[in-house]
């Protein structure tokens, strides 16, 4: 059935996601602080709201796709979204934010008489445009069931990971695996270079042996073995290094808060923070292999 959706945050991800909800037959009332983004969304069939609160007063479901936790909490609370929506409205936050912030947002929504789900995504802008995102959701089963048809209009897969915050937890744990494994693969290629091993030979062995992983077989950090990987186009993203740095920063916060001895995860967070602040500012996250290669000292 067609639903009325308030959609706040029409940026790189939210813009195409909102457009896909319109395509699926839903009424979408959208808002973004940037007028140009609101205009683009209107061209895709989104109804422009005059403010964030105006976008949610008539909504059955409120979707947010914002930069960070402070934006989500700011809008929910100080921005008045929770006060403006009808009682019982389902608030689905698709932004990638701190697990602790997601739980705070959930509690605030429930305290205001609303219902809540955290549902961050992976798949990037191409996935948002093609409606092939993966959603990882945290919240009660009934809330997940209600959101599922909307998530299906924007993505290919939705996994219910558990209670409040579990979607964010799954997202940062997955990306911690990815950040660490990309560094491991990159270190192995640089070591192989020093040992006189060709990229193709290492790839042919590791991709079919126990070193196999996505960072190697899909997003291979050296050009050649996987022609579609960003390394073959001078590391044009892809998954931009600053976004990886952001996600690893969220993982590092959780690691410290919960006293987990995740040395590799913390090291990856630091390496990506440095890379994203310098040479990697506009590069795919696999470009970190160049930093590692450049830092290698002469034998
Ligand atoms: P973006 O910066 O392009 O979009 C965020 C939008 O929120 C902006 O257009 C901004 O104007 C708007 N906004 C901020 N505060 C607002 C407010 N108070 N009211 C209305 N609008 C407001 O970012 P993005 O790339 O679309 O990412 C959004 C979220 O998705 C982030 O949390 C990011 O980590 C996550 N994410 C991004 C990607 C990606 O590849 N870009 C992939 C997975 C997850």
What labels describe this entry?
299 residues; alpha/beta; Rossmann fold; N-(1-d-carboxylethyl)-l-norvaline Dehydrogenase, domain 2; 2 domains; six-stranded parallel β-sheet; three-stranded mixed β-sheet; 51% helix; 13% strand; elongated; binds nicotinamide-adenine-dinucleotide; oxidoreductase
Layout: helices, strands, pairs:
Elements: E1 4-8, H1 14-23, E2 27-31, H2 35-43, E3 47-48, H3 52-56, E4 61-64, H4 69-76, H5 81-84, E5 90-93, H6 99-111, E6 115-118, E7 121-122, H7 124-130, E8 133-138, H8 141-154, E9 155-162, H9 166-194, H10 199-206, H11 214-217, H12 241-257, H13 263-277, H14 288-295
Parallel strand pairs: 1-2, 1-4, 2-3, 4-5, 5-6, 8-9
Antiparallel strand pairs: 7-8
Helix pairs in contact: 1-7, 4-6, 9-12, 9-13, 9-14, 12-13
The structure holds nicotinamide-adenine-dinucleotide.
Residues 8-14, 31-34, 37, 52, 65-67, 71, 75, 95-96, 121-122, 124-125, 243, 246 line the site of nicotinamide-adenine-dinucleotide (NAD).
EC number: 1.1.1.31
Family: Belongs to the HIBADH-related family.
Pfam family, one: NAD_binding_2
